[in-house]
Amino acid sequence: MRAGHRIPILLVLLLIAAPVSGLVVAPNDTSSDGSETLQVDGFVTTKFATVGTEVSVHANVRGADSSNTLVTADILHYRDLDPLDRFNGASPSSPPVIVDTIALTSQGVDEFDSSTTVWMGTYTVPVTASGGVYGASVTAQSGNLLATDDPSQISEIFGAEVSKVLQSIDDTWDIANPTADIAEEFTDLQDIVMNNGGWDQFVEDACRGSGALGSQALWNEMIDASRDENQYNMSAGADFLEELMLFLESDDSAASVGFVVAVLTYLDQFPIPRVMNDFQDIPPYLAEFDLIENFTRFEGTGDFEAAYDAMTATGEWDNITTALDNLANNQRQFESVQTLMRNIAVLSISDHPEAIAEGLGAFIDPLLDEDFDNMTAFQRFLIRFVEMADRLEETDIQDTDGDDIPDRIVWEYEKVLDTPEGQAWTAKMQSDHPHVNTAFSAFNTLPENILNIVIDSTQDPAWNVTGEVLADFGEWLGHFSDGPAMDDFSSTYDEGNSTHLMNLDDDMESIPDFMTFEHNMYTPMIGINLDVWNSDETHPNSINFGVTQSNGQQRYSVNLEKVSDDSDDQCWDWDCERYVGVLEIPVFKDQMWEFDDILDELKDSGVIRDSEGEDRFEMEMELLSLPMIVQMGLEGNDEIFTVSALGVLVESPQQSLMGEDITIRSQVYNGVGPVEGAEVEVAVLRISPQAGFDLLNDNGLIGSEDDDEDDDDEDDEDYTFYCDNGIEIPDYEQYKINNEENDCGDWSDETPYETYYPCDDGNGGVEFYNLNNDNFDCDDESDEGVTWFDSAYVNIETKYECEDGSDAVSEYSLNNGWDDCDDGSDEQADAEDNLDKIENLTVSFNGDGDFDEDDDGTDDHCYMFDVDVFDGDGNELFNDYVMMSYWGSGGVDLGAYDGIFRKWSVEGTLLQYPALVDGAPTSCDDIVFDADDVTDESIERSFEGELKRVIRDMSWYFEEDDGELAGIRGDVYYDSVWGDDENYNVLIMIVDGNETGPSYTSFEQMDYDVGEDDYNTGFELDMADLDPGYYCIHVDLRNMDDTVVDAISTSTDENCFTIEEEEEDEASDLELSPELIDSIFTDGPFEVFTTVELNTDENGEAVLTITPSKPGTYVSIVQAKAPHQSYDTLTGLGGSISVVTNGSLSVSGMDHVADFSGFPVYSVDTEPGAVHAITITPSMLDNVYNEDGEFSVCWAYTPLRFDPFFPDISNESWGDGDSDCIEFQDGDTSRTSEIRVAAMGAFGMIVIKDGEIWPRGMHAGFILASPEELVLNGDLGPGQTTNIALADATAERIIAIAAPEMGLDPALIDVPTVSDQLYDVIKSEVMSWHAFENGVACDNAEYGLECTEGNTKYSDEDLDPMSLIQDLLADMNSIAWGEGSSADLRLPVLSSPVDDYTILSVAQVGTGDDAYITSALHIEEAVPNPEPPQAKTMTVSFSPADPRPGDTVQVLVVDKDSGSPIEGMSVTLMNGPNIVASEISGSDGTADFTIIEGTLQFRVSGGLYVPTSLILIVSPSGIEVDGDEQLPVDSDGDGVLDAEDAFPNDSQESVDTDGDGVGDNADVFPDDPNESADSDGDGIGDNADSEGISAMVAGAAIGVLVFVIIGVAGAIMFLSRSGNDDMPEAVDYAAAAGGWSEPPMSAPGGGKPSPTLTGQMRDGYEVVEYPDGSGSWWWRDPNTGNWNEWT
Question: S-S: 638 plus which of 43, 517, 520, 660, CB 3.0-4.6 Å?
């Protein structure tokens, strides 16, 4: 597109930015003043349905007056969306079709949510439905508010926003696309040459002309002069010109131009998608450009082309592309996947890819190696151009207009042409061959022209618009995804300006705005966590924070409450308080909201002060409600359901032997019966685990068990701590060992006297803090009166020496207002800096002793610490006695601290001696201690600690990259961090593990600064360059003058590791080959055994026979497609499984009485609870025996229990499971086992040889003990209900299930009922408004939300689970459940109509203590439905006959055939999108509503009835029906409309066949217009009797009548023979459609029958000939009620 079109397209681009969400129906509607909001959440619980079944449609409504609310649901059919596509996440390419509208009725207020009303409606899937993906669009209306929950509305919004971007890009590309103009530059150059003889002639003219003044001579003079260093020194330009000519006369010149133009044209026409569905057009377009074909035009690509052709010739590439095409077209999926995998695998080990790579390398290598002699012309041309580009000087690039964009680039070859020699050659060309100069001129300006085209394109204003659209979309997507405001925010302090500022990203000016959405299903809830630091600890109880609408009209806020001090969620800093809360924004409009400036709020409240730099805040916000992008996925499935219109039953033997054929019988049917002519695709998959194991083992890909015998099988070391009493402390709780707590309960996890005090009697112990606490914790009271050395500490005491030297005072004495120094120097302003600081070491001890043992007020004992104090290197610092004070303490000053050692230890005891002097009690202070006087001594104890920061330990681990050791990560941990305000540096090194220090060879090292508050330092070390060897990790902790103050030694192996020499892989005997790869797919564990396409016969059957190739599981997957009158196909899926083994197992001693879905059912003549003997007979290959000549048959038996349904039956009555393995030796034919049988149980047997993984034989089935016989009252078949009961006993409770004898019928798994219940649970417990809000509260208690447990439908304490299950079973097809003597068994409409069914049952007989359980069995042949579901017709009439706006109208709905009123029909009246009425017909078939003025859409639908639809035009003057028809009225209420009622006011009469004015009901002679009564009952009408008509006249009349009848019959026969089409033959619509089908939705036609016209039913469809006798037949669309011409 060119410039002339830019202005209108720019206008379009600007319009693209208009909002789109307002154009899509929304589940919320808010009044104009914002005071009211109506919300609807519609959902369908029946996720899978079949034709003729009911679908439950629900709605939750909020914000409405239920008495003034109407709710309807449009039923949608997504005709272009396949159910499997839906599961794959595909979206429909076109809008759905509305096939029905139903009314929902209020079920009252939600029991658990008083703000929500619950609505429910039922949609019955028409018998003529084609199946597929359906949905419900639920609309609620209350007053002027209208809200609609649609399945695709959020996706539509997202798609529309994406489309705005795509359309902007596409339109801009149309305006500013440079590719076409660039391509034109190349084609113009090529045209100049081609119009003058081509490239070869161009070179001939330019530099091959003969003669002294020929072009060759002049060319050579120019080239030689340019190469001369002493003349022009422009060899690069000359070389380029020379190589240019060689290139132009090569084939590469045309290839280059062709390649460039092809790529540019391809890009110019690229189909940039404008909407989401356009992306499907891209893959076909990508496939149109053959890159290989274009590349191989160049010289030097022959090897590449040959290799590619060789690969294609093998079929590998073609097979891959064919498989990809099949997958894209949904054809032969399984086979295509296998083909793809096999050919890719073969390709990966073939030499073709390598050859292709080598071919490509052969083209590229000369360029990389600068091998000029072996380069192609094109390659040499590129090299010369690069060399010339390197010679560009700054003056060569000219910018004449100063826009920093080159307007002219002067290449060196142009300078060559400007030399005198070059000018001579140019003049020659101008005179002889001017096209050469023209071509050179175009070539000279080619780079500049291309550059200008590109620059013009990028500077086009359209890109600015697109950029704005992209920016807007990015912002919108942020809100749609989670909200850009959901982040962490904090403050920072600007010391220069003494003010607090918001700490924001560079692109932020404030907290980003928040966006609410009209289509949001949930109230936006934002969790806020605000931490505020105030150095004065001044914090309010709450802080208000909120949002304001961008226009300032609305505001919502929350009081963030201060977290209590006893909460685990509090802020733990002393000057910090945490505030939490949830901000709700109950707005459902597309609006932007501005957050409060939290910093200003905190400043205004005085919590953060600009004068205090330590004040600050941190705030976290998170969206607690679901983001829109998550809702899009949930809501997209909420209202969707799938309908199946075709059944597929697949039969194959449950188990089979190798060598025996397997017959796979597929039956396709619908609700009427078998479907003939259906296309059936059968894919058989083989799954053979044993074959895969053998293949890998045989080819050395896995080893045998013997190969592993030499492996290191040493178990991981067990770090579990085993207490003496048997209790275990797991390895992850090792911190509990020696933690001074009795975790074992017997103190065995602690060390006596070190971590606890043991009682003297050996029974238990006590914690140290419980010693001498005046309570006897030991049974022997030995924990009281104990002499105990409790603790010892070495500390650095900092003091300041007074200026006069008289004393030294502590730091707390400085400037405290008291003269602690005699000269008062401790109170001077700069005392801390002026006074000399002294660091002294002090030792303090604590102990426990009983000074006054007899409590007489005088000392009985004194105590003395006997201690040794050492530094970290073991040097003794102190060894003496220290008296213990009455307070239990003692201490000593060790003198000045040298600042060198950091660790210390203390050893010692506490000594007791008498408080006596000369035998008299004396104060301990007055006694001179003598060691000989000691009367008691404590246990000797030792203590250790640190004075300053030291390394406590280190943890580390290896990091791997693609299985290779890449580095080490770890942490260094410190002790005594508190109180040490120095800064340090830690150096971590990988050193030679054989070095002992103190200096080490470092192979890799990192150093990190350690702050005064750091308790650990994380580190990373690179290992990539380490050679094999032994290494250790060494750590040095250094102070700021680089003195090592602590280190982790490498003297132990704890922090060491070895890098092993890489061992070369031993040569493997395995050689991958295409044959081996192919065998993996044909002989390996998985194979698509076959894929066959068949057609069903007249019985709806398609049969396939296969011969298994290997033992394993053979899975048959069958897809059936049947033709449909209105749509392409009806589709159904089915499947079966057959197990194939080399041997078989049989069982005797039981009667094989039936099969249940292919599993045998056995009966034993043994009462439940008794022992029964069975005989097992294997038939195995000889190689089944092990080396001892034995093999085992293992069996298992488990009773089938139904405890919840039979509460009177004891637990023992159900029986117990059992299992055993029986050894068979060579010569054994059978063995006997005993089973204690239950009423009903499952039994299985298997033979697995040692070392194999697949059974040699297996068998499974059911065992019934003395089963009763069942009797059925009624036929068993599709859509039919039969009553089942015990034949010879009376049941109290009974449960039964039916299944085909062979094969699995998918329809018998009552998916509609199960899915209805499951989705109701999901919706009620997770996704409903109430459940979601309660879930948010329970999951986010830290925000102060209140969680209510058991406050949902299925978590209610009053819910009876058994009642729920029983109700579910009562609704399920194919399962019968009843509390009584019998139960109803109903088969689904789409169950098999021709199979034999087995019914298994368990029943309770008797009650109380006399109750017992019994099994029962019955086999019944299915009976096709004698009355298959057919569409019914109804009559709808209005009263009054001519209502006016404001009148109350009553609608009567009756069955057309019976005249009976129909209850439960949806009656809806719509005025455009607005609901005028939404009612359900009552038991009398009526529904009332008030009619309004306007054009209204009236519809009645429900059940299997053909809907009735009318367009009513209501005005003050009356009512009209669109199509000039009369309003259907039934004045006498007899079910016959007045327009068709001969007696509209007589409810007893409606037909007068003979037209004599007497209704047929009262007319004795309804076909005789002259007679209506026979008073004397003689068979002669009263009129004839009274006139005395003679027999002759009567006979003549009869003769005439007979003549007329014969004449009419003859005419009919004549017309039939003459082929007259005026009289239609009966049409078998079902057969014509290939089965039970749906007629076309519309057909062309002239005059249309009125919707009120009633036709006749044929094959399930209502048809009519209109006009009467015209031969034009019409059918009524069951979805719309309109007539469509049958074509």
Answer: 43
